[in-house]
Amino acid sequence: MSSTKSNKVVTFHKAVWSYYRTHGRNALPWRKTRNPYLILVSEIMLQQTQVERVVPYYTKFVTEFPNVETLARAPLARVLTVWQGLGYNRRAKMLHEAAKQIVGEYQGTFPKQIEQLESLRGVGPYTARAVAAFAYNNDVIFIETNIRTVVIHHFFPKKEKVSDADIEKILVRTFPKGKAREWYSALMDYGAYLKRSGVRTNTRVKGYAKQSTFKGSVREARGAILRALHKKPQTITSLLSLLGEERVIQMQMATQRLLQEGLLQRSRGLYHLPE
Predict the structure, then answer these.
(1) Residues carrying an active site annotation
(2) pLDDT digits (tens, 9 = 90+) for 76-95
(3) Which of 38, 92, 184, 203 has its CA 20 to 30 A from that of 128?
């Protein structure tokens, strides 16, 4: 490593650690635990959802289901009810299935190996490594949106298209061994700060795709259906009319997909949450 590159890494570390020591979000409830179950819950909830929005839902969820056994035993309808309002309800179903896997396949002992974590329902490479870092302090490499922002801002200020492979090389090169838990917390907090400060790097990420607008989307249709079912069972006519006549076809498609995913059921002519 050349002197120039070494100095760049030192400057990078100083910026990240300095911000974290002064402004780290250590009050976040999942930052106060090393329990892999609680960390998994937080990681699943944080997917595509802002931190501030997750906190009250996380607190409610882990109060209702404080450990993997209580979640595994709970009816899916109850899990969906507690999750209701957070959105992306498939996450709740997959988390419920992952809890059943841990209880059934691992006798309630939370897996530690990356391969075992990735075998859990709804857990991909990022989530598995995030759990490994935050729960077990394992020296693993992973990337998420705030981490991308930090690395691109410091190491690729002028490059037009930055791949995750480019970012991973920087993360390997700058990783402070034995400090995974703190380091990733620091990177994420610093990245969130950069975004609030106006730093925008997403359009320079290779493969970047802007998230679709919620209004008028299938996500909105799915949410409307599940909200209605949380109140009481519904006829197909009432479900299809929830968002107006112009969206009946979309509502029909959303209902069919929710049925296929097991997020709702039909019996005696009525649609209801799974039992």
Answers:
(1) 43
(2) 999 999 999 998 899 999 99
(3) 203
